[in-house]
Amino acid sequence: MIDIHFGPQICGDLTSAASREWLVPDGLGGYAMGTVGGLRTRRYHGLLVVPGETPASRQVGLVSLDPAVTLPSGARVRLGAHEWASGDVDPRGFELLERFDLIDGLPRWRWRIGAVVIERELAMLPGRSCVAVVHRLVAGGPVRLELSAACTWRDAHGERRADGPIPQVEAVADGAVVEGAYRLAGPGWAPEGQWWLGVHHREEANRGLHPDEDLWYAGRFSGELERPGDTVSVRAWAGRLDEEPPPATEIVATARRRNRRVVATAKPADDVDATLALAADAFVVRTNQAAVDVVAGYPWFGAWSRDTMISYEGLFLCTGRADEGRELLRAYAATLSEGMLANTADTGRVEYNTVDGTLWFLHAVSRHVTVTGDTDLGDELLPALRAVIDAHTAGTRYGIRVDPADGLLTQGAAGTALTWMDARVYGVPVTPRTGKPVEVNALWINGLAGLAELTELAGQDADELWRRHRQATASFRERFPAPTGWLHDVLDAPAPAYPLGGAAVHDDDALRPNQLLAWSLPYAPMEPDEATLRRIAGGLLTPLGPRSLAPDSGEFVGRHRGGPADRDGGYHQGTVWPWLLGPYVDAVRRGKMSVDDVFVGIEAHLMEYGLGSVSETADGLAPHTATGCPFQAWSVAELLRVRRKSQ
User: Fold this and answer.
1) Pick from 514, 485, 338: nearest CA to 420
2) 237: closest CA among 250, 228, 246, 225?
3) How far apart are CA 336 and CA 331, in angstroms?
4) Taking a C-beta distance cutoff of 8 angstroms, is the pair 388, 352 a contact?
5) CB contact at 8 A, 455 and 370
6) Which of 10, 290, 389, 641 is least surrounded by CB atoms within 10 angstroms?
7) Which residues form the Glycogen debranching enzyme bacterial and archaeal type N-terminal domain (predicted)?
8) What angle do helix axes 322-333 and 305-312 make, rounded to 10 degrees?
9) How far is CA 145 from CA 2, 5, 34, 137, in A?
10) Which of these, 487, 486, 507, lies nearest to 496 by C-alpha position?
11) SS3 state at 251
């Protein structure tokens, strides 16, 4: 894997150290997460974040273990880091960090206090909500190490304050149980019990959300580090509290071995490929129901079917996980209703509110069978997939139906945004894209051809599917090319305003990246044209992927910043989406154009934001600062997929 490490100039500079985040997942949807410098910048940061019934319903438990070292001289040096509502940063342990490493996906910090060097490693026990934090004396000593446990128990999206109930902490052997929800265990436990008031999260302030919370100082662990190699370790776990996990050092070793197996199974071609394979592993989880699912992004997303299906080939087929993928596809097929795939359970209820999620599902099944030769799965799902085509042809929810005049798919209902560009501001869609979106129809045509092939593999008649495919392809090629030199983004869209007697619909020719699917998909409706692709690249391409809207558009928003309304308003109006690099590379490659230089910026990004991973979004204007989730499934999956094809 790529070597990710930072020395004192990065670690000791708060802005640099706090803008680089690490993630250690538990395989269930929970995680430990923080920054290189140890400063918590998000409400979501913590050492034990526990998944609920769904990966999105997470609870924050153990927030931090703040080290303090008592030297032979009697001096006490604090190594933690907190920012407070007053603006103060205290303590400032990051100033004593001489190195941070991410090794096999696990973070390691090294503090130097003169001749004394202390190292911290952290890991989660795979398949269990359990974190182990190991502190080791590397040089110097003897010293005494104290670890102050800052705790809470709250929804990951909220805060807990001192004006509410005091957390219940029950003393047990070697530690305590907090709120009956999770257990802390380690040496020399001494209960304390007081509020730390006004802990500040600078990233929440940047996102226009409430940035402060109060933490409960539950107590501290302590132990002696007499000679190099001595350790003081703490474990925290949820779930089966009476079932003690293995020793902390064993948990670290187990996690490291597992991560190496994950990488080896993916058979990486180079160090970047290996890094992406391990990054992909973070998103594949087993839920409380023991079902395979995909977390769309950390730290705040749960499972979204659109993201899952776009990510499918990269996460499962490129990493040697086809058996798990098969299980996932079968489970998602069971959610089909009126020809539509359930979108997300993040809200606590099943929703059917996308036009493209189902079409990406058709694509995922087709790719699974094509890549693996698993025709048994194709045969099993064929009736459900045919029902999808029938439902779309006859018409289903939200006005989704085939227009018999041209065989293209149209969609839309008042107040809805059914494509992946689904942001809303105060309930009003920013880009409703009602009509016939270009990527939806590319997916429709791709789905018809893919299903026709599955039908023929099953020994059945596919003539009607091929007839529909030919009609839709001919209509696409006739109607989507725009006078601008690229493709329309939406056909037959409601005109925003038109004079008496004017047209009630228009064709939207805004330069957006959605058209890339018209060339990138396996059964794409268009043949690549170099001049067109160069126009698209000239307007949209950045080092981290294509923008969602060209900068010369009057609606372009170059910075994805501000409060929720500001961020949602700019989400698809110029913000960069790294996952779109996948369709871009496929389209360019089909056009016989070079992609050798396309990955330079995004490979460097692996060490800039979410370490070893790829962000959800970035600013449309230079320097294209990363935004959104630091760890995003489809961003990782699509980069992994198209890099594999380049090797």
Assistant:
1) 514
2) 246
3) 10
4) no
5) no
6) 290
7) 20-227
8) 150
9) 32, 25, 21, 10
10) 507
11) helix
Coil vs helix vs strand at 423: coil
Ranges assigned E (strand) in 448-513: 490-494, 505-508
Whether residue 18 contacts residue 202, with contact meaning beta carbons closer than 8 Å, is answered with yes
DSSP states along 316-331: IITTT-HHHHHHHHHH
Torsion of CA 135, 140, 144, 147, to 10 degrees: -30
How far is 127 from 36, CA to CA, in rounded Å?
A: 25
With CA atoms as reference, report the closest residue to 48 among 189, 220, 234: 234
Q: What is the mean pLDDT of residues 397-418?
A: 95
Helix 438-457 vs helix 463-479: crossing angle, to nearest 10: 160
pLDDT in tens, 513-563: 999 999 999 999 999 999 999 999 999 999 999 999 999 999 999 999 899
The count of residues in the chain is 647
Coil, helix or strand at residue 199: strand
Helix axis angle for 375-394 and 438-457, nearest 10°, is 130
**392 closest CA partner among 364, 368, 411:** 411
* Two structure tokens written together for 100: 């941070």
Mean pLDDT of 138-160: 96
List pLDDT tens digits, range 191-247: 999 999 999 999 999 999 999 999 999 999 999 999 999 999 999 999 999 999 999
Nearest to 57 by CA among 241, 291, 292, 287: 287
Q: Which residue has the higher pLDDT, 11 or 502?
A: 11
Residue 499, pLDDT > 70, answer no
What H or E segment, with its residue span, contains residue 150?
strand 143-155
- Cα gap 606→2, rounded to integer Å: 9
Mean pLDDT of 629-644: 97
DSSP bridge pairs for 458: none
The rounded distance, in Å, linking the Cα atoms of 145 and 136 is 10
Distance CA 374, CA 364 (A): 13
Mean pLDDT of 451-475: 98
Radius of gyration of the chain (CA): 26
The residue type at 236:
A
- Say if residue 618's pLDDT is above 60: yes
- Pick from 148, 103, 151, 143: which is nearest to 123 by CA? 103
Q: Report phi then psi at 277, rounded to 5.
A: -65, -40
Helix H or strand E segment including 603: helix 600-605
Tokens 């997300």 map to which residue? Answer: 344
List, for residues 339-382, the tens digit of each pLDDT value.
999 987 676 678 899 999 999 999 999 999 999 999 999 999 99
Element (H, E) at 467: helix 463-479
- pTM of this prediction? 0.96
